[in-house]
Model the fold of this input.
Amino acid sequence: MGSPKPVRNWTPTVLRKFAAGGLFGALLRRLIAAAILIGLIVGGWTYAWRTWGEAGTVSRDFIVAPENISITPPPSWIHADVKGEVAKSSSLASLPLRDPQLVDKVSRAFAAHSWVASVKRVSKHYPARLEVELEYRKPVAMVEVTWQGEPKLYFIDAASVLLPSEDFEKEVAQKAPHFLRISAGDVSPTGRAFGTPWGSEKIAGAALLADTCQGHWQKLGLYRVLVDSDPNAKPLFKLETKAGTRILWGHAPGSEAKDEQSPREKIAWLEQYVVKHGPLDKSAATTSPGVDYRLDLRYPTGKTPPQTARKGLETKR
Done:
């Protein structure tokens, strides 16, 4: 038998020279040792995480349950279980505290609730706990509509957002005296989805007017907001007492015509008028045929100038 063939060394010539000695050989050996050490550290850390660390993050200290979510306490006019409804509809039963999308997910879930105007802040805390700061919608008026031949009342906020009727159905008789009414005629809400705007420029303007009158309308003996149109087809609003006396308010707050008084000026003028002349049903009732109001709050005089009555108002741009 012949001698075995020698095994050829395939190590590159340059590396063999480095490994043989000298500065470059020492450097290479150190680099190889460092690479092996780093590999051992990474491998060990990965093994340790999978064995002990990852299992720890699924413990109760890292999983947020609905009972560990605290929210801004709802005001007295909200009877709904806001947190419970959000947790049920948005699958917030078990939330990993380490989820990088957790804050955004919880924020979007609460923002979708019909009683929530905005989510101010969501903060995470250890052990598993969330704090959610909310701004709630506040009802400012009741809209009178006729639906399938039946009179209905819908509550809205200052942004004309339709509020959940179930929170009011059992207490409408008690709550009604605390809100201005808005006569909508045949203007029904678009879609009838709670938590969404009514969808009408007229109702949006009336809601702003009702909000402006908060803290004043009861003292003035007001009862209802009526919607009309000016000569340019812009919504024009009137205030009405329960006995039917009407006062021309003008355009919606923020949409006043040129030279029209501001909302604050209108309210101050009307309050001074009542102090001086007495209740509106006695002092402001009209006796002129074909005219359903005596006072025009658009002007400091309380009266409509003759030329304006003929030509209408030029709306501000």
Observations:
- Residues 22-56 form the longest helix (35 residues).
